[in-house]
Amino acid sequence: MHYPQLANCNICPRYCGIDRYSTTGFCGAGSRLKINLAALHHGEEPPISGSRGSGTIFFSWCNLHCVFCQNHRISNDGWGNELSETELSDIMLRLADEGAHNINLVTPTHFSPLIATAIQTAKYRGLCIPIVWNSSAYECEATLESMNGLIDIYLPDYKYAHGIYAKKYSAAPDYPEVAMKAIETMYAQCGDIKLDSNGIAKRGTIVRLLVLPNGLSGTKAALIKLAERLGTDVSISLMAQYYPTANAEQYLELSRGISEQEYMQAVDTALELGFANLYTQELSCSDMWTPTFQSEGKPVEKIMQVKPACGE
Q: Which of 144, 202, 250, 293 has the least CB density, counted as fewest CB within 10 Å?
């Protein structure tokens, strides 16, 4: 299938305008879907992973290329395997058959038109579990609107409250406002988290904030912005899993994990602001939260293992 959006690509806020059928832009993605892992994953927030796991699909490439990315082998280096939209729908259905509570699309933005086709195909073939859009929130509102009705749960990051750090570490000085508008669009579509009788999310939004060392993520300012723009009923996930990886050790201020004090300051701020639905995480300064990604060349049916998260 030919996608006009890929022939003059403005899917994300980079607005590269390139023809992905013949070249690549900032993100590195071409015109075919590319994934690295697809597996039941137990390391997400409790209403996402539940008891049986989230059917997580990790897409290759990314439009941010954060210097500290824990998934840098696939997001920056592009490790993965190409597949068709039909093959992606096959994987969705297989994960559902394996008991997944949902289909969790990780870093999907740059493949959104192709993913939309795969979701529609899978639903036509009987897929009936929720679809999770797990992204950096560096997204165009128009792209999110094109997914309206296909996505049940939004799981966006809010990485930076300050453009100076977004520029330095992700080459995206406009990130704070662009991401906030994207999160508002997501929240308008799906609203607050709604759980079934077993505590599993069926619809809604959870905003993730990864606490960086030395206050670089601006977590306090980010929480204040979220409270002002969305209110305090929105679900917040404060992530404590930062550790120096990728190119982070080239930056002295990023070359260590976060302290317990730094994390608890973030938790205390969220509570003081009155956030009613708050998810916290065990402090970890290792790669225990990070899946083991495969280098290129592995057949799709062979790349189905995810390393368990802490405590499993």
A: 250
